[in-house]
Amino acid sequence: QVILAAAIAGGHSELQEELSRLAIDLQAEIDGKEKIKQIADKYLVNANRTFYIGRGADADSTLEAALKLKEISYTLVEGFAAGELKHGTISLIEQATPIIGLISQSKMAGLTRSNLEETMARGAKAVTIVTKNLATKDDDIILPALTGEMEMFGPILEAIPIQLLAYYTSLGRNLDVDHPRNLAKSVTVQ
């Protein structure tokens, strides 16, 4: 769809090159999955609840991340816009509650980091999934850099680690990731 839209707009070749690079970046993420497994084992396997936060396009990714984690690990998970943190959710944060911050949007990075600091002040364990151009030395999962208009692909890069976090959390709980309980495809159920 992106290539088609760019072709209609007349700017197809640059975008195609960027998407090719993105495919290589996605493979690099998959190749680095051991670090994601370690994070899942350390912070998510034994957690009673987990929260994903992000802003802009990252806020949309938090919803998908929460859905995937709760579907196969049976954990209470919520994803939401980081700016909504003070509207109730912050009262649920206890010592060692995992808060996973998604950061791929440069205009929102500082605000999301500020929200993560608020959760850490309440005892939460913040885990960051961040693009390289926005990363600090303390970040956990570093995604390939995205700048300028390419930031729109942040959610695509975030998809790999959020899926792997759900997968490894489920495995760590000795659950069958291929047959989650009580789920049915919405297209087959009326």
Pick out its properties.
globular; 5-stranded parallel beta sheet; 190 residues; Rossmann fold; 15% strand; 46% helix; alpha/beta; 6 helices
Describe this structure in words.
The chain is of the alpha/beta class and 190 residues long. The chain has a single domain, classed as 3-Layer(aba) Sandwich (Rossmann fold). The protein has six helices and five strands, in the order H-H-H-E-H-E-E-H-E-E-H. The longest helix has 20 residues, at 12-31. The chain is globular.
For this structure, what is the CATH class? Alpha Beta
SS class: alpha/beta
**What name goes with the CATH superfamily?**
Glucose-6-phosphate isomerase like protein, domain 1
What is the number of E strands?
5
Strand content bin: 5-15%
CATH topology: Rossmann fold
N to C succession of SSEs: HHHEHEEHEEH
Return the average pLDDT rounded to an integer.
87
Our count of domains comes out at 1
As a percent range, the share of helical residues equals: 40-55%
How would you write the strand order of the largest sheet? 2-1-3-4-5
Q: Count the DSSP helices.
A: 6
Radius of gyration, CA atoms, in whole angstroms: 17 Å
Globally, the shape reads globular
Low-confidence stretches: none
Terminal residue distance: 29 Å
- The CATH architecture name reads 3-Layer(aba) Sandwich
Taking the sheet with the most strands, its summary is: 5 strands, parallel
